[in-house]
Each structure stands twice: as structure tokens, then as C-alpha cells.
Amino acid sequence: MSTEITTADINVPGHVAVRRQIQPRRIELHVGVGLILAVVVACLVIPILDRTDPNALVALPLQPPSAEHPFGTDMVGRDVFIRVFTAGRLDIALAALGVLVPFISGTVIGTVVGASRRRLVDTVTMRLTDCVIAFPFVILVLVIVVIIGADTRIPLLPPGAASVLVAVWIVNWTTYARLARARTHVLRQEDFISAARLLGFSQARIVARHLLPSVWPTTATYAVADALVLVSLIAALPFLGAGIQPPTPEWGSIMYEGRGFLLQAWWISFTTAGVLLVLGTGVMLVVDALVSNPRRPRLP
Amino acid sequence: MSMKHKAGVLLMTVGALLTAAAHGNASDGTLRIGIDQFPTNLDPGQNPWQQQQAIMHLIAGTLTNQEPDGKQVTMGLAASIEPGDKRFVVKLKPDLKFSDGSALTATDVVASFNYYMNDKTNGYSYTFTPIERVIATDDLTVEFELKRPYPSLPFILALPSSEIIPSESIEARGSKDLYNGDHPLPAAGPFQVQSFGQDQITLQRNSHYAGTQPSTKTVIFKKIIDPAARLAQVQGGEIDWADGISPKQVGQLSAPVEVRSALAINGLSFLSLNNRDSSLLSDVRIRKAIAVAINRKQINEVVHAGQSQPALSLWATASRYSRPFLSADPDVTRAKELLAGTKCENACKLKLITSSASEAGGDTVIVVQQNLKAIGIEVDIVKAEGATINEWLTQGNFDLWAGGSFDVADFPDGYLAWTVGQANEALYSGYSSSEMNRLIEQVNMTTGSERDAAVAALNALFEKDLPLVPTTNIVSVSASRVPSEILNISPTMYLEVR
Amino acid sequence: MLVVRTTFARALQIVIVGLFVTVGTNLLVRLVPGDPARAILGEKASPEVVRALRHELGLDQPVIQQIARSLGRLVQGDLGTSFGYRGQEVASLIGPGLGVTAGLAAVAIALSLVVGVPGGLWLALVRRTEADLIGRLGTTVLLALPSFMAALILLYFVSLKLGLAPAGGWAGSWPENARYVWLPALALTTYLGPLIARTVRQAALDAIGQPFVEAARARGVPRRRIVACHVLPNALLPVITLVGFNAGILVSGAVIVETVFAVPGLGSRLLQAMSTRDLPVMQGIALVTAVSIVLFNLLTDLLNIAVDPRIRRTH
Amino acid sequence: MTEMLLRASNIAIEIAGLELVSNVDLEVDRGHSLGIVGETGSGKSLTCRAFAGLLSPIGGRISSGSLWVGRQDATSPDTHAKAALYGRVVSLVPQNSLMALNPLMRIGTHLTETIKALDADSVVQLKARAIDLLQRVGLPDPERILRQYPHQLSGGMRQRVMIALAIAGRPELLIADEPTTALDVSVQKDILELLRRLTHEENMALILISHDLGVVAAATQSVAVMYAGMVVERGPTDTVLRQPRHPYTQALLKARPTIGHTGRLMGIPGAPASPDTWPSGCRFAPRCPHADNRCDAKVPTLETIGGGHVGACHRLHESLVLDLSKKDLLSS
Questions:
Q1: Among A290, B207, D98, D239, which is least packed, fewest CB within 10 Å?
Q2: How does strand D33-37 pair with strand D205-210?
Q3: In this predicted complex, what is the ipTM?
Q4: What confidence score (pLDDT) does residue B154 get?
């Protein structure tokens, strides 16, 4: 028995089968995008509707959730609700910035290196990524965060953001570069690239017009998942004494500050965690939908 | 029944079994204490940090001993101290022994002080600068020759940094620190080191201790950096004492765990102000406006859950030198009046730095930010970890710093040096006043009514110059499973183990 | 042979990574603000005292010279001596922490395999049922959950609410550590477990779709044996690579989870070294971790060679 | 006496609500060999999956008609009884031998697990039986092969292993699905010869699926030609290939290159129809050079031509016979 024959027999009614394959993926995609949008829109809209200063001491500390303060108040009496959604703007913006730069640079570097026929270029780049990847990420981030320090500012972003972003930019391009290189190596075998070569197109033109358009969807899919990893990382840094420092509202620091009050004020950490979890689940669903395989036979 | 459920039951059973195997507690004479920082060695000449001193305090045999109230000292290894203007004569108790059973004589005292005074890397060298030299006149007599009158010397002699250690150990010292675990240094205090690790230090009762033997046999210090983890562990019975938890967290404690708190006898939280010309705060009117605008009651409530007290003078409320002149409540109108005509009249921006390690500091700055917002001053809070903060402080790269200073007993020397004195000037606030320095010297060298007068003049000058803004008293809140008769925290901020 | 070649390639990588990490950390830590001497001596030390210590630590020498010195030492297998624990070997300081973190990571990997492999296999077998949907959603949510959050939630419910585990801490010796290790390990498992489960599920589905499974079915091999002997081994192959690939992430996760549970692993060593600017220890930890990760990758390489007969042939 | 081993009466096969195979009537007697030919997508493999009990993994089912395998109703829901069928009464030789062997498992393990599952009597002497099976399929040095992994064998050797696995349960009917497609021409011949020899020696029936008329001609007694999910012509192999009556069969034969043939190869115009666009009348009509009104209006049924030769074409009895020399084809 063989897959060829099977798929031939099933796929003759091609689009019927395809329609059935896509159905579950569509649902995942829709739910995922819905969850992400819900969080993003909330983060954009809520701080506009409710103009409470997220750092204002609006009530007594450690008040449980109420109509006035849906997520309660934190240990100094700030409104957790407004803080969480103000924080979301920062976290999402940081994740986007943190993903975008490595995505672009890594994809271009990986494609160029992958297309290059000079062994040395390839070897040097790959050894470099080896080193960066083997270098424990947390340690590197911590060191860079300390070096760049809270004092270096990127306009519009709070203290500490610059260090986190630079650390992430230094490290994360490597994964994109590796993915892009691997994809390019596959593409290089294909006819349209060979054809372009034979037609005498320049290397730059082949990379820009032929390879990159086929490479970036692969790295883009990874970028979606990477954004979630980044949100988690940024949120984890306060646990290591780094990252965006309080009182700037940031998910990680809100949870970190709240961790000492789990028994008497669970809402500080856990409402924040809930919002992060909704966003994370959305991202995971989208990633699933993007990479999910077509339906497969069941074990009889 | 689903597999998941079964797995859950299994997990719970395993967990319960493991927990049932929990080990001993305070009843067998063992105290387990969770603290956040450990000394990297137990060399008395090398331990500048507070928590390190707390451990050293239990080991160190010192000529005098600190009373827990912080107000006076009693005799320790010394039988008597005959104070003089420029010469202190110390008589040792007879038949003193180190924990290894070897005799402790005047030779050891002299060797110890020579070691401390000559070691360029000694973090406490400032306590020894007034001492000219230390000599033994016989086996039991030591003379301290002084460069200037030093009435606080008995307090200095009680510090763990003045511990008496065997002269042989000092002579045998190579490139390594004394006391780094492999070869515990014989000590003459109530406890001796049994093991010294990076995460756990075990002390054992010293049977050769000259004073009253503690009832506690073993003290185990565990390094638990995170205060929330310390709290969780004392509540869970993993430790008997969680040092330095957030006062706001005490609501989570339940019997048998109880709160233990102590107000420092000689310690204050304050906003250190950058008095250098580079800062807006070189203008005394802005400094005073800030001092008036701060809501000390609110800081006490929000940051310390009411466990502390507003600080209304240069000194801690409990200190004998305290002369309150500030108000616990803010006065926005007065603050705005003070700002009139300054660069902050309409609006200005100040950089407030605080160490990410200090939870209280972190919360204080939030209140300060809100308080100063009310008088039109925008506060830019920048948190960084300790070493970076230190660098910024020495560089003057800040306007405000949420910090504090304290000394272990109610004597002025160290405290003044680090708040309004030259040490402070060199390090961070940039406040430099020859008048203040003269008054400090006067306070340090006098006693009795003479000292009272000097303190009064100093307080008046402080009120006029206001180089820093007191906020609250330093309070230490701990959680304990053991009675306070066995283990308690005193206003000296030392742990008292009995 | 292939084993020799793989080992050689990884050994070369260790050398390159070691060089990179040593030079890198040396350069990086010189840029770090905050003076190690000041951090050791405390704010009360006078500037002369700080200068004296800087000289003693060799911090007043040119950076190039300092790098050359630490490289020279490294060649002799010496990580240098600590600034904070003066005169003590860095190796002896970070050794115990490495052991703790490695132990935690090992238990987490074991737990993840115990949970993830049968779980993933089960999800593959029940696919397109409600159980599969719930299972997949569960793994999705767990993967979206950062490990420090998982640690907090476990600490809250399992330790504080139910009292089923110590609220952190460490016994210092095995098997006593078992009491302490399982909850932090479980926190790490919330990440690695679902990842393994999903990988196993996907790989098992791939395997189920393979003609050899159908062929086995067609010639009457019992279902149980097909699952155990045909589907499972093939589903396990990508798990080896997955675990190897995640070694670095696991170490990072362990460092964070350690702080929540106050486990004295490399994480607390690192944080202490950072706060006291103990450069040799920071460097040592970075180096040891990087080398461990490469070694771990070597282990997974060798494991792959051992279990997959195809690799042995094609290379 | 001939014994009916497999009888498919008017079966239709459905996947996802779509009927992909309709009205198939086929029979195989003990010792008989049947070839099924057709283009990709003609439903021949699906039909053979149905015979081998492998519809459910791809979500298919027999939607109408009856299928008897041995004395068992294969459409009945009695899974237990059916389990005893496959591997023992009917056994399958899959097409791609590399894909059909577990890459992580030694050949020996493949054999022993199959013997354990199918042949209770041989369990005590597993290895001997495994070696015996490998010898039967003509593999040299069976001891060594037992220790080897699938990727270490050549395609032809693997196909022999597949056949050894298929006969491990001493089946009465062997279904070989394109057993030679992935092989070199020289090896193809050996495998076909092996199948012919085995069916003869063991008195097994054989169903041979192929798109290659030559393969079928060489190895089978009767042949069924499928187009678009239906059997369009069926009969003794000799007759059908010498005197094809259905225009599709004729076209297939014409499209085949033969040695000595000097003229142009005749392709079949158009592409095979897909199930959801099947015409309401004769499914071949759109591509048939002889189609007329009747063909568009009505599905032709199988009609007897004589001598077991049947065909489904409205113009079956008109003289459409093509002038073909099949000598070389039949002797290849």
C-alpha cells in the first residue's frame, strides 16, 4: 500500500479533501487571532477610556477586585486593571520591536549566506550563531541589561527597554539566520533558482527577487512564536532583577511585585497572568494553524 | 475515571509522603534562619555588609558587648575599660579561651587590631583611624593610644569588625582571607562556625564562650534571596525565622508564625539629595520644598504598613539625639511657597534612583513621585541594581536617591559620617560644609552636656541646610516560628539568639 | 567513524564557544558599570581602600592583558579565583551550583518525558475526539504559560494552599533533595512536557500515516504492538533532538524557577556574582553553562546515532 | 472444484460522502490470478484497499454492495471475525517497500512479529520460520538479512521481504499493489516471476494491481480494466488484451510503447475525470473518440461478450476492434 496511490485516490476530488483539511486550522486561526485582538484592543482602548494614572495611588493597598477596580489594587494601592492594560501596550510594543529587527536582519543574513557559494562566509556565520546560541541566553541578557543599564533610553520607551531590546537583537537574529539559510539551501536546488542563475541574474537580484520572497514566510511563522517567547522573557526578567523596572507598568514586574502577596492578594499576579495567558494562547493557536499539517489517517 | 484524575491523586499522594518526611525544628535546639545575603567569608576585617555583620555578631568575641536596646555597651572579653581622653586601658577577663580551647591573651588583642588597622582593604578602616596604636602591657592589659578623643570607642569595640582572633591565625594568613570555610577561625563569641557554604552557614554553640551560654545549640543560616520565598518557607515550616520580609506581607502569616519587628535605634530612611551644583537640588529652597511636600504618614502606611514611624529629624525617633522639626503630614501650600522663584517654580524634572534590591525603597519612590507631582515636580524613577546605583551615586548621576543609613547602636560617629559628614560628601550627596564637619568632629569628640550642645548646633545647621530629606525610621520586620526569648531582632538590627 | 566525527565536531565547537565566551564576557564585564572592589568593600570603604583592592584584583591592568591572562589560565583548565570569595577557585564555587541546576534540569527532563511521551502518544491515538481537542488546547495553554508563572501558580496552590511540598529550599544532598526538587521541576515540566507531548503527537501521527504502519496492520500485527513497536520508536526520534535543542532554554528556565523556589543553583550563583560584580565567577558560569549546553548537544547527537540506524549509514 | 475466495458484488466505495468507486463486480477463485489495470485515479487501489480491509484508515467505507472474503462477509461490523481474515486469508504486498518497512526495526523483527501475530504454530521456532520465509522468496544469506535494517537492502530485496511478510500467515489470497512500480525493469521481472511461482506452489490466488498492461499480461489469468471508479472491461487476460472491446482498453493498449512499433504513440486525449465532475452518462465519454448521444445520456452496464469477457460500452457490439499486434506485449 502506498501514500501515492492513497492520496491520488483521495485527492482526485482535490478541493473537497483540501476543504476538509483546512476546516480545523481555520478555527484555530480565527480563535487565535480573536484572542490576540481582544488583548491588543483592550490594551489600546482601556487606557484611553479610563484615564487613571497607572502609578496613582487610588485606593487602599491590597483591595480585592470590585466594580470600581475590576482587578483590585496592588500593594501600594494602585489600580491593577489600568496597570495591566497599560503594561500590555509596552509589552506588546517591545515584543514587536524585539521580533521585527532580528526577523529582518536574520532573514536577510541567512538568505545571503545560504545563497553564497563561498564556504568561508557560511562557516564563519554558522560558527558565530553556534556561539551565540550556546551562550546561555539569560546570562547574556542579564549582562547586557546591566551594561546598557537603565540609564540609556530609547525615545518613547521607559528606562530599561533599550537594554532588553538590544540584548534580544544581539541574540535572536541567529535563529532566523539559521532558518533562512536552511530554507535557502532547499530553494537553491529548485529549478527556478537554477533558471535564474543560468539567465545570468546577479546574486543580489536572485536573493532579493527570487529567494527572499520564498524564504520570509518560513521565518515569519517562527517570528509569531518568537514574539510570545519574547513577551515571556521580558516578563521573566524582573524575577532576575533586570528588565523594565517598576514603577513603569509591565506585566513581568506587576507579577513579580505581586508574588509576595499570593496568599492575601492573588489578583495582582494572577489577573496579569490571565491576560498574558489569553494572549499567549492566541499566539500559540495562530502558530499551530500556520504550521499544522494536513489531516492524516487514523490508526485503525 | 480519567487518567488525568488518577495521575492527580498519585501526585498528591507522593507529595504528601514527601512532606511527611519533613525534618526537625527549633525544639531540638536548632534554629533555621532565612536571610537574603551571605558573607563571602567570615574574615572580620572583610565584612562590610549588614547581613554579614548579623552572622558575625553571633561568632565574634569582642572586648565589649552591645546591649540589644542599642543604648549602651557592657563588658565582653574585657573585664573593665578605663576610658581616658587619648588613652583607653582595657583589662581582659582571666582564663579566656577561643573556641578551639587555646588561650586568649592581650597578644591576640593587639595582633587583631594591628591586622585591622594595617589592612588597606578593610571596609571598616574608618572606625580605626582615631587609634594611634594598640599595645599590650601584660597578658591581660591592652592600651589603646588615640590620635584624638574617641568617646565612642567602647561601641566600636563591640562591633564584629573588632573581633578578637588568635594571633597565630593572623600570622599564618596567606593570600586568602582568614575564615573562608576550609579552616574555620577559632572565635571567642557565643557561637563558632561549623560549616561555611555559599547557601548555608551552620554555627554551633561555643562551649568556651566566656559569657552566658545560649540555650540554642545550632544556628543554621540559609540564603534565600527572595523575600517572598523566605515568607513562604517560614510559613511552610522550612525555616524558623524569615529575616526582612515586607511589612505588608504580614497579613499572610498565620499561627504559629508571628511577626517580629524592630525600629532601628540609630537608622533612618531618607531621600538623599544631590547637593552638587549640577543638580537642581543645589538650591536649598527646592530641597526644603521637597521635605515639606513629602507625606511621611502615607509612606509609613503604604510602604511599611504602619509598622514604622515618620522620621522628623536627622536622627531616628528613638535616638537620644533626635530633635523633630519636620511634619508627618505634607503641606503643599508651604512647599509651593518655597518653590516660588526657583527653577522648579512652574515645573521641573528630577531623576530619582533606587536599588532594585530594595522593596521598601521601590515602594517609597512611588509615593514620593505622587507627592511631588502635587507641587509640580515630575519625578523620573530609575531603578538599577546595587552596584550600578553605587556608581551613579559616586558620579553624582542622580537628583534623588531613596536610601538610608544606620549604625548598630545609638552613637553618632558612623551615622553622621555617612549622612551629613565627609564620607557622605565623598560618596554621593555632594554636601560639603566646613561648619557641619566642625560640628561633627565636636560631637564625636565630646561627651555629656558638651556633646548635647554640639548635637543641638548640628541639628540646627541640618534644619537650615537640609542636605537630605528624612522619610521614615528604618524598621525590620521578620516572621518567626520561635518564641522571642530564644530569637529576636533588636533595635540594633542584630539577631539576638539565646 | 561517525561517532568520532560527531564528537570531534562538538569538541571543536566547545573550543570555539569557550574562546568566544571568555573573550566576550571579559569584554562585556569591563563595560558593566559598578566597581567590583566597591561592591566587595561596601559603600563605607574609602577611595584609597577601593584603589588598593582594585590593584590586588588586577582590575587596574589593561583589558587586553586581563583577557590574555584569563585565556592563559583557561588553557590550563583553570577558571581563576573569585573576587568575592577571595582566593577561592571559581570552579569549586560554581561546581555545587552546577550540580543543583543539572539535577533540577535532569528531573524536569525526566518528568517531561514521563508525562509528555505517553500523553502525546495518547493524543495521537484519540485524535479528532473531544479528548484530543482538550488535550491539544491544554498543551497550547501550558506552552503559553511562562515558567515563572507556572512556578508561582504551583507555589501558591501546591505549597501554600495544599501544603504538599516545601515552599522552596534545598536539602543539599540526594535523595533528600527529592522532597524539594519535584515542584520546581514540575514548573519546568509545564513547558517541556507539553512541548514533548505535541512533538510526540505530531511524530506519532506522522508515523501512523506511514505505509509501514498500515502494512503492519494489513499483515495482522496487533494494534498494541503497532503502537509500541512501530509508532512509538519513530515518535521518540524527534524528541531527542527537541530536548537537545531546548537545553539552553531549559537552563534559562531553571535559573528563573530557581529564584522563585530559592533553589541554590547556578541562578543564585549568577545573581550573586552579578550583584557583587564577581567577574571571574560570572565568566566561569557563562563558560560552564555554554560548554554544558554543547556537551548536552553532543549527548543528543550520540543518542540519535545510537537509536536511528539510518544516520549511521547515510553519513 | 473451484472455491470462491473473494467475491465483490456491485460494491461502491465512499470517502467523505463522495462515491469514488461504483458498481464493481469481481471474483477470485482459489489458485486464480486477477489483474486490475487502470490509470491513476481509476479506483483500482481503492478497490484493492477494500479487499485488504484498509478502507477505514483513510476514512473510506463500502457504501453499497457486498464483499465476501473466504466465508466471511467483509462488510459486516464483526471486527473480531474480520481481524482473523487479514493476513491469514487475504494478505497485501504494498507498493513502496522502503516506506512499508519500519526504518528503526530489523528485518528479523518484522518477520518474527508477523509470524507471532499470524502463525501460532511457528512461534516456538520463530527464527527457523523467518529464515524459511526469506528462502522461499529467494533471498540469499537470510541469516544476515534478518539482522539488517530496511535501508540496508536494495529495492528488489525489500520487495521480496514484503512478499515474505505477506505470505507469513499462509494466506489464500495475495493482493499485490503495484509491486514492481518502484523497481528496475530487470528486478521487476524477477518479482513477477516470484509471485507467479509462489501462487503456484502455495496454491494462492493473486490480485495484481498495475497501471502497466505488460505486468498484468505476464502474471495473470484474467484482467479487469477500471476507469473512473468503474470496471469497464473484464475477462481472460489473453482475450481482453488481444481483443479489447472497450474504447478505453483499446486506448490504453495504444498508449503503450512496444518494441518494434514504429508509429506514433497514441495518447488518450483529455484528462481523467474527477469524481465530482463525473458525467452522468458513460464516464469515458468525454475522452472517447466513438462517443455518441447514448453515451452522454446513460451509464453503460457490463454486457457479456462471450467466454467470460464482459465490457461496459454502448457500442460494445459495433465493430470498433483496433488493429493491434499484441504478440510482443503478451510475450514480454
A1: B207
A2: parallel
A3: 0.79
A4: 93
